[in-house]
Amino acid sequence: MKFNLAFYVHHHGAGHFTRTAQIIRHLHGFHITLLGSNLKPYQHLLPKETNVIHLPMDTPDQNDVYHSNGNAVDAFHYAPLNIKGISERAAMMTNFFQSAHPLLLVVDVSVEVTLLARLAGIPTIVMRQHGLRDDLPHLMAYQSAELLIAPFPAAISPKSAKWITDKTKYVGGFSRFDKGNSAAEKPRHVAVIVGSGGTSIDADFIGFLTNAAHDFNFYIIGKIDGKAILQPHVTYYGHQDEPGMLLEQCSMVIGNTGHNTVMEMASLNKRFIAIPESRPFDEQLDKARAIQSVPGVIMILPESLYETNWNEVLHQLQAQQPEWDGIIAENALASTAEAIVAVGQKIYG
Asked: Residue 211 falls within a domain, yes or no?
């Protein structure tokens, strides 16, 4: 039987969307729907035939006068009371689940959406992430799913119970970039990636960094908080849908350790200063620790940014040769698509 595919995408940052868009491009012959909040800024990056359901946010607004956290519920990460957006989201998703049957839902990521789908009788695949995810809500979501997919190799996987590891398909890393061209690199050119999910890399830090390292040229990629400090060795590029050409020119990159940034550094084989931001379940810290042994990677914690001798660190890193071997798998996206289709075929024949 022919089945439909849907993806739920978490709205925090752009990483979940970017990963999902890459996977969708490797799924052919399916009617595919994307569900999530705050998708409009990125929707143009999807294949045109992708159906998009724009869900309201799940946070209170000025009209939710009765909202509260309610009683603590061990089974959920987020289940407040009397927020209209949550009620509307649940209704829109369950209506879609009913109308799109037969359906397979890929969740990237949400415990609550995974469990809502299971209660509605919809089979799911859950994307795994780094971090300490041995709490009850995660375990329930993992149990309820048909399959877990890890978009990274087992070698850098977080520690997990054996049943979770056995249930996981490790497809290897992938990113939107092809293998890097080291011949295009310019020594002492540094890209600074400013993420959209909350970062300590702001205008003040960029000013501190660039004032300390006049031997280097800096390319600032992304929207910064605060007033940019103009200097002759600093160029601000703002948000870039396709920053690959800029990154290829740089011999080093400074950025946070969100999943996609790390995989992009691996694809391009870049020297990388990894700054793990505070995230639920220590996701970025766990990933930074997982790649700390990679030659050409230096981890610096956010609380040490203004205590670091950046000129010394950059000179030290420039002298190293990056070796991200084993992180990226050339067939990772194809393997992901095949795993998704295989689950659907197993269920629906």
From this structure: yes
Enter the DSSP assignment of 100: T
Cβ atoms of 162 and 134 closer than 8 Å: no
Tokens (6 digits) for 332: 């990772």
Residues 157, 193, single domain; the answer is no
Residue 325 covered by a domain:
no
Task: Give the whole-angstrom CA distance, residue 149 versus residue 156.
Answer: 14
Q: Is the dihedral of CA 129, 326, 246, 300 positive or negative?
A: positive
Is residue 106 within 8 Å of 33, Cβ to Cβ?
A: no
Burial group, residue 270, by CB count within 10 angstroms (0-12, 13-18, 19+): buried
CATH number of the domain residue 232 falls in: 3.40.50.2000
Q: Does residue 312 lie in a domain region?
A: yes
Whole-prediction pTM? 0.95
Amino acid at 222: G
Let me know: does 25 contact 47? Beta carbons within 8 Å.
yes
Residue range(s) defining the domain that contains residue 149? 4-174+330-348
Q: Is residue 323 part of a domain?
A: no
Beta bridge partners of 173: 328
* Model confidence pLDDT, tens digit, residues 207-256: 999 999 999 999 999 999 888 889 999 999 999 989 999 999 999 999 99
